[in-house]
Design a protein that fits this description.
The chain is mainly α. It has one domain (3-72). The chain has helices at 3-9, 15-29, 34-41, 45-73.
């Protein structure tokens, strides 16, 4: 299973999985350089890149599903943020 899959599905993800997720967050949300984040969290760059890609795919799929549900049920069921 991929690191993102483990992060998403494991009851208690291992330290390496959590560190990979944190490194991905630092890169995508905080603007930290990939190499710097990987060095800081002691994780492999390839795993962080894969995590970012898989999380993006997952988030996009969930957004599409949510939008389809909104269209089926109507906006009344979904309060505005």
């Amino acid at each position: 299973m991929s690191v993102f899959g483990t992060y998403l599905c494991a009851d208690e993800p291992c330290v390496e999985t959590l560190n990979t997720a944190e490194a991905a967050l630092q890169v995508t949300e905080k603007g930290m350089a990939l190499s710097e984040a990987c060095k800081l969290y002691k994780v492999d760059e390839r795993n962080v890149i894969s995590f970012i890609i898989e999380k993006t795919e997952y988030d996009t799929t969930m957004d599409i599903i949510d939008q389809n549900e909104k269209e089926k049920l109507g906006e009344d069921f979904y309060p505005l943020p």
